[in-house]
Write a sequence for this structure.
């Protein structure tokens, strides 16, 4: 029998139960279905068995199986006694079978300093750092994607009677602070209920009346949403304690500034009388200002997280580090790189109680970004990124914060929080044993014909897709992208070549699996066709659906891959 005749018979047989544009169901998927079905039907009991054995599901498996059945009732080929191949395949490529956790599952009762926090840089800019517009739109977009730290640069307007947000010393057009605050209130918790932190880069110090105006705007806009601690904090509250609260973080005015000389109208702030150091005690005794005061607190009293900017030698790094009060310190990416060589231990110790914010160097006028792993490996919680562009590092950042339900807070690895000293995961990862090996197989992709114009990739023929996978993480875990074969002239590429990619991993908590798809172009640069980045520690094993994203990090409506993930020890 010729190959052509074989292909015709296979397509004709399966076309009665499943129709895929431009291709067929991968052979491995057919075999899995056959092994769990009888008379071309998978029963409820067989589906449960599949979920347990192939997908390694252990929690509420019977309920999941019932939900899968219920979600497929609309299919014409769905039988009461079980699933057809078509229905089974629809489940595999659907929302009930995504490759990563979709709910918050980490402990959210530790201090804020114990979490990586999804952080924006110059959150109001629509484009480059020199001449783009300032707007509320990038702020709203960031919040809707789970970003939890919004940066606003405060400047007096030309009349010195109102406050603008803009990038100082550039041609960027300003936006009114009050518009930004109202936009933040509207979308702060539209995606995640966990706290939003506003970092003010305050250029109002020569104008204390404007700082007072900021206090009025902040208080009147956020009201009871605003977190105002009764005193300087010995330890940060937890995300759970701050659900749907907004915190202000900036450098406080000096005690003798005019803005601080008026009569105080908010609860008195001072040193904690009991000097609490234990977080469990703090959880019981923390006092939250509910915002029901008739009078407006002074500017300084609204600052929940006191900030400093690192300057000069590392010998005096983080004045908060030797204090019994916690705070935030900022440094740019170049200062961090300089500090890493000799002061990594000091950085990590600082970030066990305090917050370290790292931001892009000034030369990144194109709003590009830097490698976040350098900062994450030293415990930096706020790795501030330009969210308005797109690049490989931004994809890593977006992928990293898909962890923990995408809530914007990801628990730091225990080795960065240990009071017994810093483990070798940071400094000598090559010497660490391999904890697990991740095995990855790519079966097929679909959705491009629905989401792209039919001439988007090739003018005269369907695209020639190939996929790539790679690992980023500690130096010993990182590896270059590895490539599948190219499937020519197919909108629905199927890789039936049984190729499996293996990735030995030493530090699971910081490992990210990079995936992208490109259209091969023999005459020029291969064309981008989708990407994603997945936190390895949260991968669900078995046959899984992997939605792809565009260059800006927005998920495609239809484009996805069907893949398999397995771990071995």
């Amino acid at each position: 029998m010729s190959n052509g005749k074989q292909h015709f018979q296979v397509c004709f047989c399966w076309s009665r139960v499943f129709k895929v544009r431009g291709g067929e169901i991968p052979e491995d998927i057919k075999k899995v279905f056959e092994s769990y079905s009888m008379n071309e039907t998978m029963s409820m009991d067989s589906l449960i068995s599949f979920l347990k054995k192939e997908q390694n599901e252990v929690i509420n498996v019977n309920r999941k199986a019932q939900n899968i059945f219920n979600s497929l009732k609309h299919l014409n080929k769905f039988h009461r006694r079980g699933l057809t191949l078509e229905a089974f395949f629809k489940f595999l490529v659907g929302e009930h079978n995504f490759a990563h956790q979709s709910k918050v599952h980490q402990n959210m009762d530790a201090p804020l300093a114990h979490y990586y926090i999804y952080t924006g840089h110059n959150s109001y800019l629509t484009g480059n750092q020199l001449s783009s517009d300032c707007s509320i739109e990038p702020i709203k977009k960031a919040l809707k994607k789970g970003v939890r730290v919004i940066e606003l640069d405060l400047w007096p307007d030309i009349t010195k009677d109102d406050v603008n947000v803009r990038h100082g010393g550039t041609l960027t057009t300003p936006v009114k602070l009050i518009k930004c605050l109202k936009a933040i209130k509207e979308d702060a918790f539209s995606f995640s209920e966990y706290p939003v932190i506003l970092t003010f880069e305050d250029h109002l110090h020569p104008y204390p009346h404007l700082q007072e105006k900021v206090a009025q705007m902040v208080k009147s806009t956020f009201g009871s949403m605003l977190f105002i601690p009764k005193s300087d904090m010995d330890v940060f509250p937890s995300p759970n304690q701050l659900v749907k609260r907004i915190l202000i973080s900036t450098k406080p005015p000096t005690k003798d500034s005019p803005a601080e000389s008026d009569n105080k109208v908010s609860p008195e702030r001072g040193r904690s009388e009991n000097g609490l150091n234990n977080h469990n005690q703090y959880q019981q005794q923390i006092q939250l200002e509910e915002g029901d005061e008739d009078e407006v607190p002074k500017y300084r009293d609204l600052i929940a997280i006191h900030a400093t900017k690192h300057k000069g030698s590392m010998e005096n790094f983080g004045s908060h580090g030797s204090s019994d009060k916690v705070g935030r310190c900022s440094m740019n990416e170049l200062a961090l790189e300089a500090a890493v060589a000799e002061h990594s231990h000091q950085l990590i110790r600082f970030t066990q109680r305090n917050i370290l914010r790292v931001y892009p160097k000034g030369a990144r006028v194109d709003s590009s970004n830097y490698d976040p792993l350098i900062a994450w490996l030293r415990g930096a919680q706020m790795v501030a990124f330009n969210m308005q562009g797109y690049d490989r590092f931004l994809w890593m950042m977006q992928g990293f914060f898909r962890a923990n339900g995408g809530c914007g807070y990801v628990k730091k690895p225990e080795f960065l929080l240990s009071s017994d000293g810093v483990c070798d995961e940071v400094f000598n990862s090559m010497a660490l044993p391999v904890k697990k090996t991740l095995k990855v197989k790519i079966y097929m992709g679909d959705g491009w014909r629905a989401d792209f114009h039919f001439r988007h990739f090739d003018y005269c023929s369907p695209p020639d897709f190939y996929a790539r996978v790679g690992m980023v993480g500690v130096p010993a875990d990182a590896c270059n992208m590895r490539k599948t074969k190219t499937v020519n002239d197919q909108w629905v590429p199927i890789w039936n070549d049984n190729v499996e990619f293996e990735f030995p991993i030493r530090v699971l908590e910081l490992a990210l699996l990079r995936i992208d798809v490109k259209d091969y172009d023999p005459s020029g640069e291969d064309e981008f066709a989708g990407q994603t980045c997945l936190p390895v520690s949260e991968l669900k094993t078995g046959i899984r659906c992997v939605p792809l994203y565009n260059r800006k990090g927005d998920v495609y409506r239809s484009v996805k891959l069907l893949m398999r993930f397995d771990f071995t020890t």
Residues 124 and 134 are 5 Å apart (CA to CA). The first helix runs from residue 3 to 15.
